[in-house]
Amino acid sequence: MNVLHETRIDCPYCGEENTFLVDRTIKEQQYFEDCEVCCRPIDIRVRVSANGDCQVEVHSEDD
Ligand SMILES: [Zn+2]
Fold it and tell me: What is the distance between the alpha carbons of residues 36 and 25, in angstroms, rounded to a whole number?
């Protein structure tokens, strides 16, 4: 399986779709990625299960 997994998320600010890559070797991660459309920092939380499925949650900065 590919280590990098392409994931789509909706920006919590403007609702536009963003695509980013998840590194599946890291089981739990949290980071900020700027929205491609409104450039606000999206709080992204990712959990990777044993079979490589990614669960992605997005929050706005003030959540
Ligand atoms: Zn946005």
Answer: 25
Q: How far apart are CA 48 and CA 57, in angstroms?
A: 12
Q: Domain range holding 16?
A: 4-59
What's the total number of domains in the chain? 1
Q: How many angstroms is it from 51 CA to the middle of ligand 1?
A: 30
How deeply is 21 buried, as exposed, middle or buried, from its count of CB atoms within 10 A (0-12, 13-18, 19+)? exposed
Reported as type and span, the H/E element at residue 29 is strand 28-34
Rounded to the nearest angstrom, the distance between the alpha carbon of 17 and the centre of ligand 1 is 8
- Tell me what pLDDT residue 55 has: 94
**pLDDT tens-digit series, residues 44-62:** 999 999 988 899 999 999 8
